[in-house]
Structures are given as C-alpha cells and as structure tokens.
Amino acid sequence: xxxxxxxxxxxxxxxxxxxxxxxxxxxSLGIQEAWERANTYSKELxxxxxxTKIGKEEVKDSKQQWxxxxxxxxxxxxxxxxxxxxxxxxxxPEYIPIEDHSxxxxxxxxxxxxxxxxxxxxxxKEAETRExxxxxxxxxxxxxxxxxxxxxxxxxxxxxxxxxxxxxxxxRNNKRLDQINQLYENGVVLKSDLLRAKLQxxxxxxxxxxxxxNVELATQQLNILIGYDDEQPLKPTDxxxxxxxxxxxxxxxxxxxxxxxSPREKIAQSHVSISEFRLQELKADKLPRFGLFGxxxxxxxxxxxxxxxxxxxxxxxxxxxxxxxxSVLYHDKHxxxxxxxAIEQSKLAKEHTEDRLRTQVKAAYKHFHExxxxxxxxxxxxxxxxxxxRIVNQMYFNQLALLTDLLDADTQxxxxxxxxxxxxxxxxxxxxxxxxxxGQL
Length: 441
What we know:
The protein is of the alpha+beta class and about 450 residues long. It has a single domain (about 20-65, about 120-290, about 330-435), classed as Up-down Bundle (Outer membrane efflux proteins (OEP)). About 65% of the residues lie in helices and about 15% in strands. It contains eleven helices and eight strands. The chain has helices at about 1-15, 30-40, 45-65, 120-185, 190-225, 245, 250-260, 265-285, 330, 335-395, 405-435, and strands at about 25-30, 70-80, 80-85, 95, 100-115, 235, 290-300, 315-325. The strands form three sheets. The chain has a four-stranded antiparallel sheet with strand order 2-5-7-8, with no helix packed on it. Strands 1-6 form a two-stranded parallel ribbon. The two termini are about 55 Å apart. About 25% of the residues are buried.
C-alpha cells in the first residue's frame, strides 16, 4: 500500500496527467524550427553545399577559357663537341670547332582562340548545367533531411503521447487494484483476480519503461540531425493533428506539382542536357580551329636564321594560326555513336523517373487518405471502448462479470487510444512524404 500511495503522489507532483513528463530544461521545438536548424547543422547538407560551391567555381573556370593562353619558357645548356665521321663511323672523326659551348633562350608565347567549333561555349553551357544539377541534388538532400527530421520528430511525439497514455492507464490500474484488494480481503473475489490485476499492472509498467526508451532514442536521433547535444530533452510544440485545409488536394494536382518542382525530375532533365552537350563537343572536334598567336624570344647563339652568328638576338612573331585534326574523322566515329546512345539512355531514364514519381505520389496519396479514414474510425472506437469499459467495470464490481472481461475492456480502450495516435502520426508522415516527392518539403 505504501508503494501505491507513493506512486500516486509521484504522479501528482510530476504533473504527468497535465503535461508530458518532460524535464524543466527541455527545449520547446516546432517542426519548422527543426527544419531550419537542420539546414544549418546537418553535415550531409553542408557536404552537398560544398559540391554546389565547387560547381560554381567550375563554371568560372570554363569562362576563363575565353582569355588568351600565355606561357613563358627558358633554358640554358652546354653544347658537346660535334664529331664528324668523314671516313665512316669506324674511323677517327674530326671535330667541328665551337668557340662557345653555351646555349640559352627565354621567351613568351600567347594564343587567343578565335574559333574552335564553339567548343568553349559548349563547355561553359555544360558547366552551367552541371552547376544546376548540383543545386538540384542539394535541393533533393534538403527534402530528404527534412523528411528524416519530420519522421524522427513524429516518432518522438508518438512515444511521448503513448507514454502519457500508459501513465494514465497505470494510475487507473492502481486504483482498480486497490478496489480488488479490498474485495479480496473481504472474501468477495478469489486470489486469482488479485494476481491477474497485479500482472496487468506489471505489464504496463514494463511498457512504460519501453516507451521511455523510445522517447530517448527518437530524441537522440532528432538532436543529431538538428545540431543539439545527444541528451538534450525536447518538447514538441506542434499538434499531431493534420491541417486538412493545406493537405487536401486532388491527386492530379500533386502529379502536376511533382512534374514541375520535384528535384528528381529536374535531375533527370539535367542528365539529358549533359549528354547532349557531350555529343556537341565531339561534333565540334571535327571543325577547324584558328586563332591569333604571338611569340617573343631572346636566344643565344643565333642559329635560327642564316647567316648564323655567335651572338644573342631577339625575335618577335605574330600572326594567325590554323589547324585541323584529320584523325578525329575516324577516331571519334564510335565515340559519337556512344554519345547518341547515352542521350537516348538518359531520356529513357527520365521517363522511368517520371513513372516512379507518379507511383510514389499515388501510394503516398492513397495511404494518406487511408490514414484519415482510420482516424475517424479510431475516434468512434474510443467512444465505444470507453462505454464498454464503463459497463464491464460496473458489472465486475457488482459481481456480474469476470475480471478477464474487465482487463480485456481496459486493454481494448488503451489500444483504441493507441490506434488514434498512430493513425494521426501516420497521416502527417504520409503528408510530409507527399511534400517530399513533389519537391515542396
């Protein structure tokens, strides 16, 4: 009896009947705030952001190719004696006299591309498309992280709500156990009824321990995603009820939004564009190239123009350079065919992506409305289960029903309340899944 009295005062003092039994230092957190923190603290999103920044730098690098290419070079060396075999290689040679064995030069060269089949322009467009692709991949990662945050947030809410119900059920079981104990002491009921009531209470206390562990596990997972310490207690402020005014849309509306805003759809289209740019680059290789060039060289000795001279000299040159690679006519034949196949492959992959998106939208849409119907059914079941428990409870203490019937009625009532919470959480999760698929999460 002392333990039961202590437990009752513990419930009253801790306020578990009017609160969620959370520590005072818990942080109040809404789902929107959790998403904002994930945007800042998620390591996965930060890694994707680095990829996007790299893509921006690659675009700048491609545009730099419009600038002239400038190179400097220099060398210094010693010439060896030059043997001349006038009578054959097996005979003693004669040596050409060289006054100064030194040789050196330094120069600068510049080339400005004027035309190369628009290859530079194609590479810039390809780099910009890759940058856009990286942005879409980052958007997809944001949606994935937001969905994971929502899932952990809802798991934590579920565990807290179920924990609250179990605590209320334990309180009711304790009161019932006291009543059964009085009946047993008065010889009204058998000892088996008392043992069954105690067993029921023990099971609920075990369930309470499991639910506390579930709260801690879900809280840790959420804390990792949003940048809090692992053991930081959180208090969810959002209701588990869903806002039907925002969620109720026609199936075709979700499909249309998916095609327009889904990151997966945009990613697939980017792959098609990149494949097309690859083919354009190969075709550009078959076109001639020309541009302006300039050279300026300081050398010693002067052996480039006749008459030669053992003296340093300066020479400058500028003009128009033309080139055409004939080997690409046969070297790149199969590369072009492979590039054309890659384009068809990426287009087919895009269609496949659209098929999967439509399938995912329909599944999430159907499950969402299924959950809404289950919420309505669960509400009705609770009303019926409460009335059933009231009747059976009254009948048992009037010796008109068995304890087994009362315990079953108690379990059914608790399960009906569990089902309501699970259906509401499931509805919200499927709604977030719809937002994720359509690219709006």
